[in-house]
């Protein structure tokens, strides 16, 4: 599998990208340059010749929009056009290539496998180099389009016919929000005469997702409430708790409704899971956020909300299992802020998750100790460290999460709030507590290790580290050495 910047076809593919860029510029000289997060070209599909038609072999390119040359030659098919489907569906009869573009220059070319994996793994659980690189980049407080790396399941959900009620269900990190945003753009492009509204419940999540739709040329999509979209297409993110009356009203007043739900966060019984209703269901089974070492922790908190829900398969490596620190009650928040600031110094985006009753005291403590942090209620997630509650954390993700007093979170936000809090990180989770850990996290309780003497030698200090501590320290050292 070729996946390096020195791919032998890099220059050839760059020339094609140059043709696309010239055609776009000539067609609309006043059009703004697309941002790096929304490349004009990101894929190529080669079709083999049909047995009965030796001359039928051909190649298409896939990108942000439909682009033609002066003579009408198609230089790129828009991702939302049916002709682009093989790029996402990956049938074994085609060859698939992913093009990585930065500022109208190709930085890498990846030839990726199609068809079913030879090792028996599910296709959703096999990441190509482009998808892996996108996952491993640091968070920056803004969600970027995943148009080039949508999985088969996600693409299926995005492009399902717009009729009736579609329920897209999946655990944390399965891409529900990306599916919702791309479906909104797909509907806007394929049914341009109909209004499309997407409902995003919190200010933090609205701000976090604000860059995606413009990058998909879907400025006509509106963000609002369920009452803002009569008769049009409606997409509702974080729709876990809709009751039967609300669901019936939406279904009868909109041309199509798409609900994005996490079964582990839904009130029981969930109206959208009623088998007697005429609903279409798609289950997303792969988590691209939760790292493997944290899967058991997330699964344990999920089991406290619903024993019947199967957690998604995780594909991210992460930096090791959760770190647990027992503190005196008056030191818990301060130590979490200190750890968050330290992690942020290595370019991590950190979420410090607290119970609602601790939000204001933690923000005041950050101010008093001169630790600059963001308040998620403002909707600005670009700060290196953001303090937020489980309610505001819904739909968001951070490189690292510092969980403060999980007993208070469980008491105030319930098992679902605790499940939400522990499933926000892409790399590592640290837990700071003074009271016994609540159900779902109690398996992490370990006897406190004696602290080494302040003047202990390096060998003694290394021996005092737990295995998870070593993983974190090694990762931080590598990061510091690379800067």
Automatic annotation (TrEMBL):
**Which Pfam families does this UniProt record tie to the protein?**
AAA_19
Report what the protein is called: UvrD-like helicase family protein
An example Gene Ontology cellular component term from the record?
cytosol
Q: Name one GO biological process term.
A: recombinational repair
Q: Which UniProt keywords apply?
A: ATP-binding, Helicase, Hydrolase, Nucleotide-binding
- Keyword Calcium found: no
Entry annotated with the keyword Hydrolase = yes
What species is given as this protein's source?
Answer: Haloactinopolyspora alba
Q: Name one GO molecular function term.
A: 3'-5' DNA helicase activity
